[in-house]
Design brief:
heterotrimer, A mainly alpha, B mainly alpha, C mainly alpha, A: mainly alpha, Cytochrome C Oxidase, Chain A, 17 helices, C: mainly alpha, Four Helix Bundle (Hemerythrin (Met), subunit A)
Chain lengths: ~600, ~90, ~200
């Protein structure tokens, strides 16, 4: 019997289980895996690690659709008179359907499941020292709900009338009245798919919050949590609070389309702008729901590969919370030229400019974290740094759009497209890939090939910038978005070559992704077996085997330290695990 | 057992109040007051009923700050959302 | 197995210990928070539209406030029976718990019945969701609320069956009663606001 580890005093009083009548959560006790069938273990599993991988598989599969639609869009824009190889000709209706699918799939079925569903589910229990989420069965339900949602959306691509074609924003009355798009079933199924997706992330979000509040290992105070957890939980809260009005709006839109109501139809007494308000009240916080976890991943990778602690941990926590809160009061910056009351323009411009402050703080703290560090440019670090650099471009260009005066010219142009790709792509793909390369050894027990990883990074980074910098240029020239070809606009003819450059770069970007596909598959079988902590990182997920056993930890860890103790002066090692007893702490003396 | 009985009596008293408020509310429009005042009164009564249910049936009065916050923040947000839309939905054009 | 490790002092905790209350309750409140945003969005929109379009007094005159008031009474009473069920469970009075749960279910069904009568009457008089903005909102608001009532009835009926079968009493399952109660009271609170909004204005 090992000497008793000290039971650290928690900051909250701890009534006994019988006093509060708490049901024993069976996920806490390791249950016997040997008896469960293949179906229970890999298909309908309640293990958060399996669920995380399921989300990852779903998101990467949907990314194929997202990427393919990008190829279609870009080819059409570069060479509108030609047929697209592997597809055929595109006219205005198919084009609208394709851009709608591209946006919907990428935001809801790639970014969110990848950053929140995959990494959030996999890592949160491990990072806090728990054996699983607070509600494992709810977790399983959340995955299968988004699976059905993805299936519904995929099916909607093949129904008569085609898939939804009103943009991922589904503005009314375009999405409301079928005579405009010719789409009937497709738009309704789109609404259903989204509703299911929302339900899935509501379930998941409740799990993130309750687990982080309640299942932390002894000694894991809130200020010792890895920033990744803070950002994921903030994202979950923001999602939970923002999605309601859009659920209401989606019901109203569905009613308009099926029951003859007229919420958004002017010919029936409704207000089309109401949809925009309801959509963007959710839509804007939603992009931060995607951005914050991407940042969270970068914030885990940067200190490890700079061998330096996080700069401004608490500042970043407060900035994250501030950004989350502010995200609720900026939505109408998407509507400056929509015809809404102009009196709303100034307040929303002010709040939008204001929200750049917490994000700037996050960015500066990230830079300060690596400044003067002993940097090793491994693949995860390259993706994290590349993502950070690209995001800065996205953030700065957001300021032009956030100010109503400049937005009047830029709204609806490719400037907007380039801006949001410079924010969403870095956090989703650079951040996501940084996470993939960083945590792959933990998840699959193998190291990925570093050379292939670097090739993947450089191809992605160079081609990504080559796609979207030209789009800033054409946008500034006034190139409208969501049109399938520009021949009606003579003033755009001189810049058509920029569209060609962007398209060639897109093909390069997509081809470059084969590097990670090959790497992923090959390393799974033939990669070098990974140690428990190949990166010498301090957080708790590295304090267990790669991959972790079913119950995550043999003994629930006790936490003594902050999450980023790297290069601590006077220490022999350049890192100290969170589970390492503090200096002077007598391990055999109970703290109480 | 006596503590439990006390709670039961409390719960029934709250129900009595709720029904009384319901009856009062439905009779408001018989009063000789302006429409605006009547509307204000009716919603005031509804608010009181809601507070009674939240406080006594949902036990918000004995829950920790965390639960209060979880209940209060969305309420503030939803009301705030409606307020911000007033210039646009009501007074546009 | 965890018990042995616990004795060895490895620090395994029990759920609910970190924040000192059943974590399921926090989960339910978060769910209710998201529901507040859904109904809040819909109700807020309704209020704004109603004011913007002149009050809809003519259309609103066709809803039957007596039936509405009766339904409000039914739902308030069902809230009371729900809390009485919880109180009975907490003091170990099992049969009483089952009786009050049954009462709640029956009252919920009564609510739906009265709503059904209202809908039938309104539709036969020619008022459908397509009859204008007031009716669009009326049917969507009460319809969404009704779906929530149905879900609540199913939950309460499941608990009732568990109560008479005895499975409610094993392994702290009676805390599920509290969570179901929170949901049911929330459904009641939404109706407390819908009633004056739709019937009394």
């Amino acid at each position: 019997m090992t000497p008793g580890r000290p039971r650290l005093r928690r900051t909250n009083p701890t009534p006994t289980a019988t006093e509060t009548g708490i049901q024993m959560n069976i996920a806490i006790a390791p249950h016997h895996q040997a008896e469960t069938s293949f179906i229970r273990r890999y298909i309908f599993s309640t293990d958060h690690k399996v669920i995380g991988k399921q989300y990852m598989l779903l998101s990467l599969t949907m990314a194929i659709i997202g990427g393919f639609t990008a190829y279609l869009i870009r080819w059409q824009l570069a060479w509108p008179e030609t047929d697209i190889p592997g597809w055929g000709a595109i006219g205005p209706d198919n084009y609208n359907a394709i851009i709608t699918m591209h946006g919907t799939v990428m935001v809801f079925f790639v970014a969110m499941p990848f950053l929140l569903g995959a990494f959030g589910n996999y890592l949160i229990p491990l990072m806090i020292g728990a054996r699983d989420m607070a509600f494992p069965r709810l977790n399983m339900m959340s995955f299968w709900t988004i699976f059905v949602a993805a299936a519904v959306l995929t099916v909607s691509m093949f129904v008569p009338g085609g898939p939804a074609a009103a943009g991922w924003t589904a503005y009314t009355p375009l999405s409301d009245n079928p005579i405009y798009t010719g789409v009937t079933w497709g738009q309704n199924l789109w609404l259903l798919a989204l509703a299911l997706e929302f339900a899935s992330f509501l379930m998941g979000g409740i799990n993130f919050l309750t687990t982080t509040l309640n299942m932390r290992a002894p000694g894991m105070t809130l200020w010792r949590l890895p920033l990744f957890v803070w950002l994921e939980v903030t994202a979950a809260v923001v999602f939970l609070l923002s999605v309601g009005p859009l659920v209401a709006g989606a019901l109203m839109l569905l009613a308009d389309r099926t029951l003859g109501t007229g919420f958004f139809r002017p010919d029936r007494g409704g207000d089309p702008l109401l949809w925009e308000h309801l959509f963007w009240f959710f839509g804007h916080p939603e992009v931060y729901v995607v951005a914050l976890p991407g940042f969270g991943i970068m914030l885990e990778v940067l200190p490890v590969f700079a061998r330096k602690p996080i700069f401004g941990y608490r500042t970043m926590v407060w900035s994250t919370v501030a950004a989350g809160a502010l995200s609720f009061v900026v939505w109408a910056h998407h509507m400056f030229v929509s015809g809404m009351d102009p009196r709303l323009a100034t307040p929303f411009s002010v709040t939008t400019i204001l929200i750049s402050v917490p994000f700037a703080i996050l960015v500066f703290c990230m830079i300060a974290t690596v400044w003067g560090g002993s940097i090793s440019f491994t693949t995860p670090m390259l993706f994290a740094l590349g993502g950070l650099a690209s995001f800065i471009v996205g953030g700065v260009t957001g300021i032009f759009l956030g100010s109503a005066t400049t937005d009047i010219f830029l709204h609806g142009t490719y400037f907007v497209v380039a801006h949001f790709h410079y924010t969403l792509f870095p956090v989703t793909f650079f951040g996501g890939f940084a996470g993939l390369y960083y945590w792959y050894p933990k998840m699959f027990g193998r190291m990925m090939n570093e050379t292939l990883g670097k090739i993947h990074f450089w191809l992605t980074f160079v081609f990504f910038n080559a796609v979207f910098i030209p789009l800033f240029a054409v946008g500034l020239r006034g190139n409208p978005r969501r049109i399938y070809e520009m021949s009606s606009y003579n003033f755009l003819a001189p810049v058509q070559h920029l569209h060609v450059i962007a398209t060639i770069a897109t093909i390069g970007l997509l081809v470059g992704q084969f590097a990670v596909v090959v790497n992923f598959a090959w390393s799974m079988a033939r990669g070098k077996k990974a140690a428990a902590n190949p990166w010498h990182a301090a957080t708790l997920e590295w304090a267990t085997d790669s991959p972790p056993p079913h119950e995550n930890f043999e003994h629930v860890p006790v936490v003594y330290r902050d999450a980023y103790e790297y290069s601590v002066p006077g220490e022999a090692n350049d890192w100290i695990a969170q589970t390492e007893p503090a200096i002077g702490h007598l391990s055999h003396v109970a703290a109480d | 057992m006596t503590t439990a009985d006390n709670h039961d009596r409390e719960y029934i008293m709250i129900w009595v109040w709720l029904v009384a408020l319901l009856v009062t509310g439905t009779l408001i429009f018989m009063l000789p007051i302006s429409k605006t005042a009547a509307i204000a009164l009716i919603f005031g009564i509804a608010a009181v009923k809601a507070i009674l249910v939240l406080r006594d049936y949902m036990h918000l009065k004995s829950e920790r700050m965390l639960v209060y916050a979880i209940a209060a923040v969305p309420l503030v947000l939803a009301i705030g959302f409606a307020l911000v839309l007033i210039p646009d939905i009501i007074f546009r054009r | 197995m965890d018990r042995e490790l616990d004795a060895a002092g490895s620090g395994i905790f029990e759920p609910g210990e970190t924040i000192g209350m059943p974590i399921g309750k926090v989960g339910v409140w978060w769910f209710l928070a998201s529901e507040i945003m859904v109904f809040g969005g819909l109700i807020g929109t309704f209020i704004l539209f109603r004011i913007a379009h002149g009050g809809w007094a003519d259309e609103a005159a066709h809803v039957n406030w007596r039936l509405g008031a009766t339904n409000t009474f039914v739902l308030l009473t069902s809230s009371c029976t729900m809390i009485m069920a919880l109180s009975a469970a907490r003091t170990g009075r099992r049969e009483r718990t089952a009786h009050f749960l049954l009462a709640t279910v029956l009252l919920g069904l009564t609510f739906l019945g009265i709503k059904g009568i209202e809908y039938t009457r309104e539709i036969s008089e020619g008022f459908t969701p397509a009859s204008g903005m007031f009716w669009s909102f009326y049917f969507l608001l009460t319809g969404l609320h009704g779906i929530h009532v149905i879900a609540g009835i199913i939950i309460n009926a499941t608990l009732y069956v568990a109560a008479i079968r005895g499975t409610l009493w094993s392994g702290h399952h009676e805390e599920r009663l509290e969570f179901a109660g929170l949901y049911w009271h929330f459904v009641d609170v939404v109706w407390i606001f819908l009633f004056p909004l739709l019937y009394l204005s």
